[in-house]
Amino acid sequence: xxxxRPSFTARRGRPARRRTSPVLGAVALASVLALTATACDSxxxxxxxxxxxxxxxxxxxxxxxxxxxxxxxxxxxxxxxKWKNGAWKNWDRDDWLREAKDYVNPIIKGLWDPDRMRExxxxxxxxxxxxxxxxxxxxxxxxxxxxxKAVPTTYHANAPEAGKxxxxxxxxxxxxxxxxxxDPAHPGKSNLVWTAGHCVHAxxxxxxxxxxxxxxxxxxxGLSAEQLQTATKEEAAPYGVWWGxxxxxxxxxxxxxxxxxxxxxxxxxxxxxVTPEADGSGKSLEETxxxxxxVDFDAPAVPKVxxxxxxxxxxxxxxxxxxxxxxxxxxxxLSFNESDPTMYRIGCTMTGGSSGGGWVAKGADGKPxxxxxxxxxxxxxxxxxxxxxxxxxxxxxDSVSDKFAK
Length: 406
Hints:
The chain has 406 residues and is α+β, with helices and mostly antiparallel strands. It contains nine helices and 18 strands. It has a six-stranded antiparallel beta barrel with strand order 5-6-7-10-9-8. Strands 4-12-11-15-16 form a five-stranded antiparallel β-sheet, with no helix packed on it. A three-stranded antiparallel β-sheet has the order 13-14-18, with no helix packed on it. A hairpin with an 8-residue loop joins strand 13 and strand 14.
């Protein structure tokens, strides 16, 4: 079989519409109440998963940063003393943290207000389907489009594990979809969220995105975009804002992932460990939303899967990103290169913004389980593709679970 490398569009994202405030940093400066940070292998974790390395209060005393993290980041030219004043907006390539050990995502309380959430754009990853006519590894015929159906409100009653991931990139404020998944280290008390790798890391030409946060059951009542303009934070985020205090994606995505839809797509997945922005009841994310999906890393081969349901918040036209949708279809196979794992592909008219959303099927035990996530779709819409989860995905998942197992 010959492998045909397709061409792709290169619209990673569009700048979010800006409000009338002089600079985005002013919002952060006015609303910051606390700032915390974590980094990989920066010290042991305690029972709450927080670094136990020595820490120093900096700035006005409201920021507590483990000393070894602070020192390492300064080697990259990043001074966390200045982060809350808008320094996070510096996307200079030399200062853009890339490696897993350098991940940092300080909590900026109040940053994700209803306006910023509503105005976030999709990180577009579309494939030119006109160039997918050749035989590329194992590729089935292009599926017929399946119209996305609106999830009935309240979303929490019908898809309680679904939500949105918000983040900042060089192109602006962005949004993806995501799913609450179970944590084997903390049965019934998971703080793990599954999404796409391109929703947390830019891939081979960039590093970690910033201000990564998860909002379960975003816009739970299905308010219109007009109604959301005057919505309270509780209406937009009824189960709170949960910041990513640790994120892991595949080494393959970091090395290969890019603006083109096929690069790194078979490894385009990520796991986020979250912590609540606001001091609350002490409940985990799973306890707060009341549900979490198991992840099946040994799902049946594509021909044996009768049906997959994809869930997400499509943001590109004709959708506006404010409401939750689903597609259900029997999957086919899609391969970009013979050497890469074959991906699942389903008919679906959801667009950008649904990236990272969970794909659910009957797992090996016959019960619903997450088996993939939305990674790419065509320019013309009509289908979506997601990675088939295997040993690499399990390694990503286990590493995040193990990090907070103590």
